[in-house]
Amino acid sequence: MLKYKSGLLCILLITFITISCSPTETVTSSATGSEFPVWYENAGFTSDSVFFSAYATAVSSDSLKSISRAEEQARFNLESRIAEKLETVRNQLEERGSTYARNSDFILTLRNAHAPVETHAELSEGIAIANENHFRGFAKVSVSKDALGDLLEAGFAGKGSFWAEFSRSDAYYGELQ
Questions:
Q1: Assign residue 88 a region: left if phi > 0, alpha if psi is -120 to 50, beta otherwise?
Q2: Which pLDDT score is estimated for 31?
Q3: Does residue 8 surpass a pLDDT of 50?
Q4: What distance in Å separates the CA atoms of residue 28 and residue 31, rounded to the nearest whole number?
Q5: H or E element at residue 145
Q6: DSSP state at residue 43
Q7: 70-83: per-residue pLDDT in tens?
Q8: pTM assigned to the model
Q9: DSSP assignment of 1-39, as one string?
Q10: Who wins on pLDDT, 28 or 170?
């Protein structure tokens, strides 16, 4: 009887150790037959009434690295797409005769104001899909429109007239709200 209990205890201990040492990252194989998770947008960027989101994918032999690299690229993509939107606003202000929109200090302030987007964006989704000999990581990062407004306003600190003209323009609401 003691031999039976010892054997059972060994099996339970080995099972516990095996489970404890298992990786916790999200790894899957494509059950839907699609190469992409259902939440992934091939366009690379989306906007809704609350968030701006960017998407990316990366490949690595390590599942966590594939997700991390995809997240890093998605952060870069998000900041780049927001920068494009901000430049569109600036161009529209310039076309409408804004003297600030041509001012080099305004342009530098605007370009520096969106830099923190990469670090303030949050990972919304992340998954690694196992392929034959590698993992393909997918990531979605997002920043709320309210948080973006706060970041931009902080970037214009000390330049209230620049911020007022920029943030109160129709172009700003058209691109960023």
A1: alpha
A2: 41
A3: no
A4: 8
A5: helix 145-155
A6: T
A7: 999 999 999 999 99
A8: 0.78
A9: -HHHHHHHHHHHHHHHHHHHTS--S-EE--SSS-SS-TT
A10: 170
Task: Report which secondary-structure segment, H or E, holds 118.
Answer: helix 117-120
AA identity, residue 101: A
Give the residue from 49, 46, 48, 28 showing the smallest Cα distance to 138: 28
Pairing relation of β-strands 122-130 and 27-28? parallel
Please state the φ and ψ torsions of residue 67, each to the nearest 5 degrees: -70, -45
Name every residue whose Cβ is closer than 8 Å to that of residue 23 and which is 6 or more positions away in sequence. Answer: 63, 64
* Residue 177: count of CB within 10 angstroms of its CB: 11
Give the model's confidence band at 35: pLDDT under 50 very low, under 70 low, under 90 confident, else very high.
Answer: confident
* Per-residue pLDDT, 30: 43
Which residues face 57 on adjacent strands?
138
Residue 131 identity (one-letter amino acid):
N
In degrees and rounded to multiples of 5, residue 122 shows phi and psi of -115, 145
Q: 134: which strand partners? A: none
Residue whose token pair is 């990972």: 123
The letter for the amino acid at 54 is A
The answer to whether the beta carbons of residues 161 and 143 sit under 8 Å apart is no
Contact between 53 and 142 (Cβ < 8 Å): yes
Give the pLDDT of residue 1. Answer: 54
Q: Two tokens at 164?
A: 């007022």
